Amino acid sequence: MRLDCGGIRQERSYTESCSMSVVSSLVPARFLTLIAHLVIVIIIFWSRENSVRACLPLDYTNEEYRLEDTRLVVGLSVTLGLFAVELVGFLCGISMFNNNQALLSIGCHASGSVALLFFLFEQWTCSIYWWIFGFCSVIPALYEMILFVVVFGFKRKPL
Hints:
Blueprint: E1 2-5, E2 8-11, H1 19-24, H2 26-46, H3 48-54, H4 62-91, H5 99-121, H6 126-153
Antiparallel strand pairs: 1-2
Helix pairs in contact: 2-4, 2-5, 3-4, 4-6, 5-6
């Protein structure tokens, strides 16, 4: 059977459809946005001195600097832990082909990457990091944990 998928005529069986190409592109898109977000978090972790200074008033004490640095390190460390949860679920195949998780993850991590780039280059205050953390790291990781429970606890397929 000849199908016309986006102007490209291809030989496909009855079980394959044009939507297969869209669904199959979710996996690499999810992986790339997840890795992009991870790389930006690691860059902020390595160069956090400027981010910490942006969170402080012009005249700050060493105690204030240490407090803000500790807060940022904790936030970035928890973010890295949530990335580990997502990567384990993704790479083990628990959520690799779950379209809901893929779309949620792509949206959250793409917007998280853009927001963290602004955080880094525009030197936003540290309180904004927690908003980015909540919306762009916690939400997809919680959904991933729910999929862990569904797959391992209820012995169901994640699809």
